[in-house]
Amino acid sequence: MSWIDNAVVYQVYLRSFADGNGDGVGDLAGLTAHLDHLASLDIDAIWLSPCFRSPQADHGYDVSDYTQIDPLFGTIADLEAFVAAAHGRGLRVMLDLVPNHCSVEHAWFREAVAAGAGSPARSRFHFADGSGPDGALPPNNWGSVFGGPAWTRLPDGQWYLHSFDATQPDFNWGSDEVLEMMDDVLRFWFDRGVDGFRVDVAHGLVKRDGLPDWTGAPGSSNEFMWNQPGVHDVYRRWRKLADEYGACFVGEVWVASVADLLAYASPDELGQAFDFHLLVQPWHAPSIRDAVEHGLRPGTAWTLANHDVHRPATRYGQEQVIQAPDPADMLLSARRRGPVDLPLGRRRAVAASMLMLALPGAAYLYQGDELALPEVLDLPDHVRQDPIWVRSGGSELGRDGCRVPMPWNAEPTTFGFTDAPQAWLPQPELFGQLSVEVQESDAESALGVIRHALRARRVMFGGEDLTWLEAGDDVVAFRSGDGICVLNTSARELDLPDAWGTVRVSSAPIDGRILPTDACAWLSVADGDGVSPSPRSATAGTTKES
Questions:
Q1: Which residue blocks in 342-430 are alpha helix, DSSP H?
Q2: At what angle do helices 176-190 and 231-243 cross, to 10 degrees?
């Protein structure tokens, strides 16, 4: 069993975590200076968003040099200092690897453009002649995830493939040079103490041979671009390399079938993969239960948020749409607009985080989840930077709202994030009252609850099995290890049975054994578990014989 199998990993979106040099953008120095906050959460590891050299067209997911730190964030020495400081606090470090594509500024792509059609340099990417008269149309009908065609034409007439933005050309993973280059990248960072990688778009990389037109229904996911059998050869190769270092991976994998997901998460491949079904569910107990059932397997990484979706406090405060997510674009259900009841959404977000942390497997928290921060939906148009916003002509908000910088204290205008006059994205006024400093002094704040839950998790949960408990259709209740988790999504209070043990942690104040609506409670069935009741559950009853 690997350390990551049951770990809690905290995702740092580096440019928005903390600014150490006063330029308005988060960096490695700022992160290192705030490591004590992360250590106080009792997490196991930190995953950093991309920090390699990049022109930042997609905020680091367009890499121009995989073995250099972007000057915006610091230097290799800064990264090594951060790793050492994290390890000194018992925290492991994972970096974000983007292997599907690079930047148009990458030396290889610049060489390919200069070399011309048919050159060995172009074989590292997907270049092709166009279709139609004079090759004026794209080589096939594939569309970009960010909108528009997945092809861009060069002045010499050839086209290159980009599954995302035109600044992100896809590598050709049929090239031995590409395979060997990425092996070298992994070794480079493992040699510097990095403990693992989150693999971006892990179901990508390999494309269908011949790049044929997609013949599926309009709007359906293009199965020729994703989840090709050859990608598993890549990950088996990486597994052998990582095992030399005791390193790990977690894959961002969007696939329709459980069998496909299991392949990515198998011990001889990545070993762990995100199951996003829980993330996209509404506040609806049957939907949540089904999502948990979907993810109950070895190698599951649970999460409720990341840098690509609207924050839970906002999603759960909107009108809840009870329907299955669109399998062609599951993220749509996590990027909705509409009015938000923020107090309700934050209450539910804390409860949902407790449920996730009680599940068997690994749990991933996105920065600010411990504060129950909301999505910033009303950013001015002129400050938005996400390619999704740009390529959609503003019809889609994109991901800027979940990337607004962290509030560390209540001091306007940047709430302790930076000494610069303003942060790279503006923070709303309400961030002050939700800041780390403010919540630190309140044991019943979101931060207080999540911190207590993270400490209790090590004692109460951690088993590999889950047993469902009967509590009604609008309640999610289960036992795992020595703990019982109860999530009340109903409109009524719930009387917790005496046989379920002692309440140890709750997301909302509990009167005796009455769990209020939109709340979660953890109960211990083990005597002398060492977990002190939280202030919210201090009046809970003791265990009785059933």
A1: 342-358, 387-391
A2: 30
User: Checking DSSP bridges between strand 273-274 and strand 300-303, what pairing results, if any?
Assistant: parallel
Q: Cα separation of 242 and 189, whole Å?
A: 11
Nearest to 401 by CA among 426, 381, 375: 375
Residue pair 296/265 in contact (Cβ under 8 Å)? The answer is no
What is the model's pTM? 0.95
Half-sphere exposure of 331 (CA within 13 A, CB side): 19
- Give the residue numbers marked as catalytic: 200, 244
Q: In residues, how long is the chain?
A: 546
> Does residue 328 contact residue 225 with C-beta atoms inside 8 Å?
no
**Tokens at 26, concatenated:** 């988060």
Q: Taking the mean position of all CA atoms in its chain, how far away is CA 522? A: 25
Residue 383 has which token pair?
């400050």
DSSP at 389: H
Strand 300-303 with 248-251, pairing? unpaired
Q: How far apart are the first and last CA of the chain?
A: 35
Tokens 């092809």, residue? 151
Instruction: State pLDDT tens for residues 38-87.
Output: 999 999 999 999 999 999 999 999 999 999 999 999 999 999 999 999 99
- Cross-strand partners of 47: 11, 94
Residue-wise pLDDT tens digits, 116-158 = 999 999 999 999 999 999 999 999 999 999 889 999 999 999 9
3-state secondary structure of 28: helix
| CA separation, residue 6 to residues 202, 363, 521 (Å) | 21, 7, 20
Which residue's structure tokens are 């040079």? 177
